[in-house]
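**User:**
My hope is that you can spare some time for a protein that puzzles me. This is the protein in question:
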Amino acid sequence: MVPGTPNRREEKGRGRWFIYLSLAPILLLFGVFAFIPIGWSLGLSVFKYNPLSASALFVGADNYIRMLGDSIFIKSLWVTFKFVVIAVAVNILITLMFAVAIQRIRTGWLRNLMRTVFFL
């Protein structure tokens, strides 16, 4: 190697600052609007909290034990599970039908147009 010429590893490392700089805004927004509320909710879930009186009594896992023992909660989990399974199955079926229909179009420009519209 000639002195003064950067090797591939050095060149690769120089371009990474741009990647990190590009990802910083979305990671910051995601942290503010997703991670912080999730953490706050998990923290509050171990307290018996009344926002009107601003009092919080630590109860630990009691809220979770009470929730798992509630028949309405178990029923709502089951309904949610059925809804997700049905929605995903229908979504995959409809998407596959569109994909097969678009693939069968013979005209190249029309197929490309339909693919573009489909992806948008």
